[in-house]
Amino acid sequence: MDNAKVAEFFYEIADLLDLQGVAFKPQSYRRAARNIESLDDDISRIAAEGRLEEIPGVGEAMAKKIDELVKTGKLGYLDKLRSEVPAGLVELMHIPDVGPKTAMILYRELGIESLGQLKVAVEGHKLRDLKGFGEKSEERIIQGIRTLEAKGARILLGDALPVAEAIVEYLRSSQTLDRISIAGSLRRGKETIGDIDILVGDDEPARIMDSFVHYGEVREVLMKGPTKSSIRLKSGLQVDIRAVDTKSFGAALQYFTGSKEHNVVTRGIGVKLGLKLNEYGLFERDSGRLVAGATEEEVYKALGLRYMEPELRENRGEIDAAREGKLPEVVRPDQVRGDMHVHTDWSDGSDSIEVVARHAAGLGYEYVVVSDHSQSLKITNGLSPERLRKQVDAVRKAEDRLGGKFRILAGSEVDILADGTLDFDKSVLKDLDIVIGSVHSRMKMQKPDMTRRVVNAVKSGHIDILGHPTGRLIGQRAPFELEMDELLDAAKEAKVCMEINAFKDRLDLNDVNCRLAKEEGVRMAIGTDAHSIEHMGYMRLGVITARRGWLESGDVLNTLGAKELDRHLRGRRR
DNA sequence: GCCGTTTTCGGCCCGACTGTTTTCAGTCG
Prior knowledge:
The chain contains 24 helices and 17 strands. The chain is an alpha/beta fold. It has a seven-stranded parallel sheet. Strands 2-4-7-6-5 form a five-stranded mixed sheet, with helices on both faces. It folds into four domains: 3-149, DNA polymerase beta, N-terminal domain-like (DNA polymerase, domain 1); 155-244, Beta Polymerase, domain 2 (2-Layer Sandwich); 248-323, DNA polymerase, thumb domain (Beta Polymerase, domain 3, 2-Layer Sandwich); 333-571, TIM Barrel, CATH 3.20.20.140. The protein starts with a helix and ends with a helix.
């Protein structure tokens, strides 16, 4: 019984209680479920140690239920709830705009217990005669079912950002705006996004709503009011916009950036100070006087907190750190001095060494690492030792052609073979400036085997960076089975960096593991794994991931300048 | 069901929008 499973059961209890019209308990179960999901420790271990009630939101009653779940894999209370309410109703509640009340009416009046039955009923126009329903409600539910069926569709951060930025740019160009910002999980830099949130600060919001719903990419307008509207884009992505007075912009930005958990705690701090925080500002509870609201900084300051970067706002300890002045000074994009992982047309990249280097220089970098694939990876035209030697020559020549003003590091993304040895032996690797070791094959090994494999590579003394350490592809491939603590210990010992692979569907290491690595004393190196120069723009995704992992510039190898980096690498030469 | 320098009992975020309402309930974020 793992944490996710326990949380899942609790979410189901919450839904079932909602259907029964029980008040407050559902929120309690959801809160506990969220906290259980985000635990670092294994819930069965906590249960065994009798520490369940130390989990926020878990009291005596829930602790008992968790104990039962951990011990027996079952929960009598849940079974009882399930027997009282048809299981399909929970599914109905997952349709947008269908909540517990609607689901219950559908069940009581029409006997609908499943998505399938609802579809039949709605197509037969059986809903419009129900009290409180009409044609529009029917249409809305049809749309909702479509949305639900199209789901699973959380979009990658790297895909959502440009879409959101284009909308912001469109709104800016269509009229003068006082303030505008992306908000929500996109602003916090979560690796996947459900929808896009945009916030506008302006004293004439209605005209902005008009522009918004007339954006060229709109497929349908879901709702439109004077301060709040929603659209669905042709791509299927939903975009919500909110407008507030300029004097409330900071409070609203704080509010709509979230996370929900972060906001619950900040509001609680306000309450203790006799203040009320909502999207319009921070107010004195008694007099209603506005204390702060125009900027996030002043809102946080009035709460006795330092400003927290959006990427930190996940209620993972940032609020205590802000109160105690112990927030990390997280790395900024402008501190990155080079791209640590780029492919060229020598293997499966599409641009030449020189084009890559010139593009990197144009991005303001001092250096780029050319790291093409090694011989085993035939499908990528991986380099043989002989071709690698030729490539090193080509790198040196390209560097000369750039007039010595830009550093091109000759590297390799060398395969870590199944037994943990490297695809090139050290006589080949010693001529390189830098070596990334990566796993590209036999990815489904058991945990002990995979751990031994990468730890061997890390300890080999021949790699500087472990490339995409967990191999996960967001929404497509689970991370390798890997004992992260053991890997990080080895990396610290061997002074090998973990990569933050910034390619949009990798972000590997992820935020949580970045933070773990930092705490273990392991440095990170951000590389885009670009296969064309356009991909080099993914660097910002890597930086966002680093920031979400609380990394500071000193934790990131490629904040070093070219000379410092060379010195660092020579210092550990094999 | 949880939680507490507001409380061991009585709160628990609340404002915007929609549809079907003639004054509001439901959903969402």
